[in-house]
Amino acid sequence: MVFKRHIYAFISIVIVGFVQGQSTTSPGTFTTTKPLFTDHRTEKYTIGKSVNLTCTNKTWTEMFYTTWRIPRNGNHCTIAASTDKPPHDTCLDGKVMRNTSNGESYLHIPIFKVTDIGIYRCETAFQGASLIAEITVSAIVSPQIFTRLVIIRDGKREAVCSAIGGKPAASISWRNTWNSSVTQTSKNNTDGSFTVESRLIVPEHVPSDNLSCIITHPSWTELHILRVSPASEAPHFSLKKVGISMSCVIVPLGILAVFCIIRKFPKKSQDVKIHGLQTIHAIIEPSKNCNPAESRRQESEILGGGELCYTYVNIPSMML
Asked: What is the pLDDT of residue 154?
């Protein structure tokens, strides 16, 4: 009898503990007992592409509910689903919970944007346990890629291959280095992206059109091969070319200035009648050495008034 009592007491304790471990509430305000484990993950996705985040590989035949706590503008919103409650969504921005063909639940982001970066917290309960997953989601940004050929000290040529603004950093290599010197640098930009630059000293016997760099990045499905063509070679400047270029600007400006001065003090030609005599042809021109009083008299007679100092010169009619 004593042995049976101990058995019944043990069974009762196990049953009570099991029932207490299965407590749940409605979607959006779930409270559970201490989860069996917490899963921490880091995932990266390409900007502009669709994203699917998975909380667990359990299916709805085993789960009671799943809720996502999603970062948004320094705060968060919630999307949840349950076997016995209506869907719950406070985000209302296109994100939605979907199911695979075999019943696994996942969070679908139609277009991944920079504002979607952050920590996503998923909580789910299923038969026998519960799970919390914290997924740190970051962006993969494709770099901008460039090549150029420059002349450095002693007239040596240097091929440059650049990958700017990539997240994470791109990888650069050269198709052929000819055992020449290669220098590579990586700079961390203020926005968290990287700028990678590789420089190759080109041997004298290597033609400029035989240079290619290879760039790889997680945002691409294939590697990129860029050819460093002679057209990208930096131009050379000489004093002779600079002088010719400056003369092409200065000479027209000088001609224009002379023309403006001539136009400012024009010679005036007209037929005038002086002191009741016959009409003659006169050239009225500015004069520095003239009597102001006489000039005003002449001006008044010839042009009908004015304050400028002019003289006039008679021109015989045979010269007209």
From this structure: 84
Q: How far apart are CA 71 and CA 139, in angstroms?
A: 14
- β-strands 129-140, 37-46: how paired? parallel
Only one residue has tokens 């950093």, namely: 169
Q: Tell me the percentage of the chain whose pLDDT exceeds 70.
A: 62
Cβ partners under 8 Å of residue 107, min gap 6: 52, 53, 54, 55, 68, 70, 79, 95, 96, 97, 98, 120, 122
Segments in the chain forming alpha helices (H) = 2-20, 239-264, 292-303
**pLDDT 10s digits, 155-194:** 899 999 999 999 999 999 999 999 999 999 999 999 889 9
Rounded Cα distance, 292 and 123, in Å:
104
Which residue carries 């209506």 as its tokens? 86
Specify the amino acid at residue 97. M
- Average pLDDT of the residues of the chain: 76
* Averaged pLDDT for residues 90-116: 94
Which residue type, as a one-letter code, is found at position 6? H
CB 289 within 8 A of CB 314: no
Give CA–CA dist 161/153, Å, rounded.
19
Tokens of 151: 């002349």
Query: How does residue 237 score in pLDDT terms, banded at 50, 70 and 90?
Result: very low
Query: Tokens representing 23?
Result: 């407590």
Contacts of 223 (CB under 8 A, 6+ apart): 214, 215, 216
The CA angle 294-296-298, to the nearest 5 degrees, is 70
Rounded-to-integer distance, Cα 35 and Cα 122, Å: 12
Give residue for tokens 């004093």: 239
